[in-house]
Amino acid sequence: MDVAIVGASGYAGGELIRLLMTHPEAEVTVATSRALEGRPVTDQHPHLRGYTDCVFTNPAAGDIEADFAFLAVPHTAAMNYVSPLLERGIRVVDLSADYRLPRDVYERIYGVSHTDWFEAPYGLPEISREGVKNARFVSNPGCFPTGATLAAAPLAPHAAHVIYDSKTGVSGAGDNPSATTHYPNVADGINPYKWTSHRHLAEMKQELARLGSTAACYFTPHLVPVNRGILTTAHILLDEPMGQEEVEALYREFYRGEYFVRLQRPMLSAVRGSNFCDIAVESEGSRVVAVSAIDNLVKGAAGQAIQNMNIMCGYAENAGLTVPPCLP
Amino acid sequence: MDVAIVGASGYAGGELIRLLMTHPEAEVTVATSRALEGRPVTDQHPHLRGYTDCVFTNPAAGDIEADFAFLAVPHTAAMNYVSPLLERGIRVVDLSADYRLPRDVYERIYGVSHTDWFEAPYGLPEISREGVKNARFVSNPGCFPTGATLAAAPLAPHAAHVIYDSKTGVSGAGDNPSATTHYPNVADGINPYKWTSHRHLAEMKQELARLGSTAACYFTPHLVPVNRGILTTAHILLDEPMGQEEVEALYREFYRGEYFVRLQRPMLSAVRGSNFCDIAVESEGSRVVAVSAIDNLVKGAAGQAIQNMNIMCGYAENAGLTVPPCLP
Amino acid sequence: MDVAIVGASGYAGGELIRLLMTHPEAEVTVATSRALEGRPVTDQHPHLRGYTDCVFTNPAAGDIEADFAFLAVPHTAAMNYVSPLLERGIRVVDLSADYRLPRDVYERIYGVSHTDWFEAPYGLPEISREGVKNARFVSNPGCFPTGATLAAAPLAPHAAHVIYDSKTGVSGAGDNPSATTHYPNVADGINPYKWTSHRHLAEMKQELARLGSTAACYFTPHLVPVNRGILTTAHILLDEPMGQEEVEALYREFYRGEYFVRLQRPMLSAVRGSNFCDIAVESEGSRVVAVSAIDNLVKGAAGQAIQNMNIMCGYAENAGLTVPPCLP
Amino acid sequence: MDVAIVGASGYAGGELIRLLMTHPEAEVTVATSRALEGRPVTDQHPHLRGYTDCVFTNPAAGDIEADFAFLAVPHTAAMNYVSPLLERGIRVVDLSADYRLPRDVYERIYGVSHTDWFEAPYGLPEISREGVKNARFVSNPGCFPTGATLAAAPLAPHAAHVIYDSKTGVSGAGDNPSATTHYPNVADGINPYKWTSHRHLAEMKQELARLGSTAACYFTPHLVPVNRGILTTAHILLDEPMGQEEVEALYREFYRGEYFVRLQRPMLSAVRGSNFCDIAVESEGSRVVAVSAIDNLVKGAAGQAIQNMNIMCGYAENAGLTVPPCLP
Q: Active site located where (chains A, B, C, D) (predicted)?
């Protein structure tokens, strides 16, 4: 299957290329970049030198030739690609925020008008796999909502308050330099940002609701001196106290058979480069601490997008996603 | 004034020596270490080369000669020094946990018997300065309770639930190598530990109660790839919603005139090496996020101990603590 | 082919297991550890959870059952395994220092007596591939000599002085905590060690001589705040000045057809997790700066060992070593 | 004495303000910034909150009122300030490169025309203190030349080849974000740059010559994942072999009585925030490894500038520079 990556110069684009190298059915044949048109992909992604001769191109949306496309462009850019691609029979996963939320919520939170809205399945397979099957278009979740929702999901119906305190590596800010990502501003620091107003909160609330929760939901992200990974500490205040064994049983049952969820002590290094989400829980009765670790660029972006592609296309769900993580 | 530092080889001991270098009234004349007896202090603290000719000694508790003593030894060791020192007229600040809690709470949480218990003022001056004045013995707070309590204090009477999510630098684990502090286990990771059972929780509850709070109190610490500093994100669920201005006014009022509390965006690098606690707050109505940044070895240990000494001795409260922090 | 890993609990052992997961012909059937006997391999290597049910065993050297064995135990331990394994028809790659040097040099530098010495091919395939072919036993090079030798090799016959200034990540020190690897002693520092006396110098001199060089050879390693990777800056003072184009042509020619050597700007992140050695050179006439980047645990240990196994067994030289590196 | 800092918004400017806080004779009364005119200094330097009410101004060169001025602006900008300040009786230390080199060398290397050149004393006091005394204008050395020259100076007359392999923290690149300083491009990496062509090489050669050396001089800098500090490994090939004791004696003699040079194992953390240069040496006969550690923003910039001011003004040479460094 020929795959196009629209917006292939950034971190998520690079990860799509890297991961698809080991996919038995898919091959990247189109990698687009406005700024780098004509340059070899390996100039931007030097780790892939020797793996691909691909050159960045800059086709119009209607000129992209492929069986499948990933949109790894910013929100508001993605909405220009979806219909042109679908109309030509190309299935699509969109990694941007453009189709994750109801139109009104999206327009309010992102402060823009949507020019091509329709409802799309939300591709967090461990929560809503059925919607993804046979879909021709899937919206890929945000990095924070992925780790947060998977941490809290089994307790969603039992929670009164869910507070997500997340710690994200700097690759989540993209490859564009800014004061936020300037090394001396990051190293030796822990920087909370958008303490109560991060855009991903809406997705988190949406997913808790989908899971039958009526809990109040809060979210504070922190930028931490780490390249990759999101660790989410979910502080869950329960309606009724639950003991450790009961909680553990709930998680085991909820995630039974899920290849990408491993119930073990979450360490960023143990999931690095992989599509795993490692989760553990500890109950003190009225509060449960549930912690998840993901690689923000993989389970939080490119890897989950490929997982969705696999489900959409009927491949093994872990095709191209079986390479073991690399620790330390 | 001659000062003895009992347990001067560790990080807190080293910080006491460093900070007292700039104190106008105090001079370190005794620095004890069992393991390093006879060796120059600067072998262990090479940054201080050129500042002191002091040599580690190992006197019995009853043989220490000084006007003032800091105990920077582990809990259970400290309790052997207090009475012998006080009996000889030496005033004392204990940096260990031995006198921070009621006896029964201490014995239960630390799992040991106290052999010389009595009640001591808890030296968090911004909360309970009166008790410190004229005291001959003060118990210095734990590093986490200092940052956490200062973050939440103004809202204590209005809180229903207080969740402290703390991120600590590795110097908090001391200078003794272990798997926990092994570089590859720390770098590129964010490691929660004692998710619901950290010993400092009891101090946090005690201080909230002292402030008139009936809130449920929770605490989860994380080890982060930073040398120095604790950032505490206090998620405070209020009894009644409060707006941003009202909350800010509360903090301004509460900390008016406090030299060591600065109400500005907390950054670990902006307090590094200093006794400051930088705090900011953001309200979303029912939840307030209050974040504090301290240097765990200074306001969380040695600096606060000197602050207590200054209050006990009638010196300017910031004597020896005026050197500006160093950023980046 | 059944593979035994003797000493499978450390970083190199873990990497052998990780990399062999993707090898088409080899399967790890024995993983030994004295300290962890009876425990699942994934307790020690949690990133591999879900990939293997292997349990650590502790067989005597004469009881190991396999077609091929890797020795990932410390020097002096390895020499007890080689003959017993070879006698039973098991081919071996030794990752320790026990067979890298002539007996007298080894005994002098390592300060021990060798109890079972014989000559073994030195498995740096890009330099001496022929010796490895059809061998039943190969000695795997040290991490520093691998990166250093590959950086300087094309210029070896033209050099008067070769000074290797190497910067190594902390995983090179193993997984055993010590003051050297204590996080606060590593972070924010650059620590030279064994400035003129590192044991790997002898290997470096041996390889320069093998390449026909009569240059004086010097080596100073530095521990740097990085988990993985060795960057070696080779300062090469030439017998006769050479221009940039001439030097580049020499390198291109020397490494033509080498899968694992890529002539591009060396970045640790671009080789991380992989068996690549990225090299670039810059001439200023009388001095050439040649810099190489390797992953110390892969090309510097486990990956090169598998590369040697592949050559010994007639597999594709990059079998099990084709997974792309992961950046950032 | 009233002090003006021209270009006070960057790291060097911030350090000048921080360090002068503890100076007994000097007070910062003017802090200029084009971009931040009208804003409080503490908005840009939040660690100094509570220490100063100073507001950034943007006066013309001829309107600056002060007794002494530091120029912490980029090269080519500094040359516009010197004469106007000197003409009005204001003594000056220039931290830029504009007056460090002979005019022709400067113009060739920096690729610009000098519009106001004259000869100025080079302010590396340990090497050429006499020239600084009573000067009204001093050119402050570059960060790399400071650490490198101090490392090699005592051996300068005995050296045949001097190779400086330097490792610099990221604050040396300034506070302006760029791809070079983007966190994911720095963390977990060691990045050599300008391998043979860094502009500071000319200063290094000039200082070796001043010290009576005829050695060939080479320099390769590396950016390392550290905020502050430069560690320079000087590989010195001698004309004639020298033993360890002889070399050590040479260094002790050369630096006898120098307050800011400490002969001990160089660690970046042991000099952080201070004006010290820690140096140690190890001889292997024909090669000596001499390693220096400085804080690039202090001894490599602001601290040395204050040291020069002190000498120019007849203050104690260490006035304002006695605060102990902060480790870890």
A: 143
> What does the alpha-carbon distance between residue A278 and residue A265 come to, in Å, rounded to a whole number?
7
| Pair (A151, A234) in one structural domain | yes
**Domain holding C168: CATH number?**
3.30.360.10
For this structure, is D143 an active site residue?
yes
- Give yes or no: residues D152 and D260 share one domain: yes
Tell me the C-alpha distance between D146 and D203, whole Å. Answer: 9
The domain tally of chain A equals: 2
Query: Hey, are the CB atoms on D220 and C289 less than 8 Å from each other?
Result: yes
Residue C322: inside a domain, yes or no?
Answer: no
Give the list of residues 6+ apart from residue C137 with CB closer than 8 angstroms, or none: C82, C86, C91, C92, C93, C94, C99, C120, C121
User: In whole angstroms, what is the distance from residue D242 CA to residue D244 CA?
Assistant: 7
Sheet holding B159-168, edge to edge: B191-192, B216-223, B159-168, B230-242, B285-294, B277-283, B261-263
Task: Compute the nearest-CA separation of D32 from chain A (Å).
Answer: 21
β-strands A27-32, A261-263 pairing: unpaired
Whether C47 and A324 lie within 8 Å, measured CB to CB? yes
- Do A55 and A157 belong to one domain? no
Which value does ipTM take for this structure?
0.97
Instruction: Note whether residue C82 is domain-resident.
Output: yes
Nearest-Cα distance to chain D for B76, in Å, is 26
The single-letter DSSP state of residue A306 is H
Q: Which of B196, B216, B224 sits opposite A224 (nearest CB)?
A: B224
pLDDT digits 0-9 by tens, A210-262: 999 999 999 999 999 999 999 999 999 999 999 999 999 999 999 999 999 99
3-state DSSP call for residue A154? helix
Instruction: Of B124, B8, B132, give the one whose Cα is nearest residue B66.
Output: B8
**Phi, psi (degrees; rounded to nearest 5) at B154:** -60, -25
Structure tokens at C236: 């090469």
Mean pLDDT, consecutive 10-residue stretches, chain C (328 aa), reads 98 98 98 98 98 97 97 97 98 98 98 97 98 97 98 98 98 96 98 98 98 98 98 98 98 98 98 98 97 98 98 98 96
Given CB atoms, is A45 within the 8 Å cutoff of chain C?
Answer: yes
For residue A317, is it within any domain?
Answer: no
> Hunting for tokens 């200092």 — which residue is that?
B146
**Sign of torsion over alpha carbons D238, D244, D246, D249:** positive
Residue B106 identity (one-letter amino acid): Y
**C-alpha dist (Å) from residue D218 to B77, B289, C97:** 55, 53, 34
Q: How far is CA D309 from CA C4, D20, D61, in A?
A: 68, 11, 20
Tell me whether residues B271 and D188 touch, CB distance under 8 A.
no
**Residue with tokens 């040991």, as numbered in its chain:** B112
Candidates D15, D183, D188, D228, partner chain A, best to mutate (most A CBs within 10 A) = D183
* Residue D271 touches chain B, beta carbons under 8 Å: yes
- Ranges under pLDDT 50 in chain B: none
pLDDT digits (tens, 9 = 90+) for D220-256: 999 999 999 999 999 999 999 999 999 999 999 999 9
Mean pLDDT taken over chain B: 98
Whether residues C175 and B184 touch (CB distance < 8 A) is answered with yes
Task: Specify if C125 maps to a domain.
Answer: no
> Token digits for B152?
């939440």
Residues contacting residue D257 through CB under 8 Å, at least 6 positions apart: none
Task: Give the CATH number for residue C87.
Answer: 3.40.50.720
